[in-house]
Amino acid sequence: MRRMVIKKQDESVLESEATRLKPPPLYKVMLLNDDFTPMDFVVTVIQKFFGMDREQATRIMLKVHREGVGVCGVFPRDLAATKVEQVITYARQHQHPLACVMEEN
Question: Contact, 25 vs 103, CB < 8 A?
C-alpha cells in the first residue's frame, strides 16, 4: 500500500490596509477693498473668474465694499494661485488697483 502525503502550505491572506491620504489644503481667494476700483468692475471680475451670476457677484462685491474683504471661492492651492494671478492681471490691464489674495482655509 502506498501512502500519499499531501502537504498544505500555510494560506496567507493579504489584508488590505486602508491608507488614509489627507486631502490637500484648500485656500480662500479673496478680493480686498480699495477706494478706486468701480463696483461694477468688481462684479464683472467675480462673474468672469468665479463663475457666479450677477446677484451672487453683487453680494460679494458689497461685502468687499462694507467689510474690506470678500471670499470669492475656496480652491486647491494651484487653482487658487491661478485665480489670484488672473484677477490681478485683468485688473491691471483695465488700470484698476483691485487686490486679490489667497490664504489657507
Answer: no
Average pLDDT over residues 65-92: 98
Q: Residue with C-alpha cell 493579504? A: 14
| Least reliable range by pLDDT among 20-29, 32-41, 64-73, 77-86 | 20-29
Q: Are 105 and 74 spatial neighbours (Cβ–Cβ below 8 Å)?
A: yes
One-letter identity of residue 42: V
- Element at 66 (helix H, strand E): helix 54-67
For 9-18, letters b (16+ CB in 10 Å) and e give: eeeeeeeeee
pLDDT greater than 80 at residue 16: no
| Contact in structure between 12 and 62 (CB atoms under 8 Å) | no
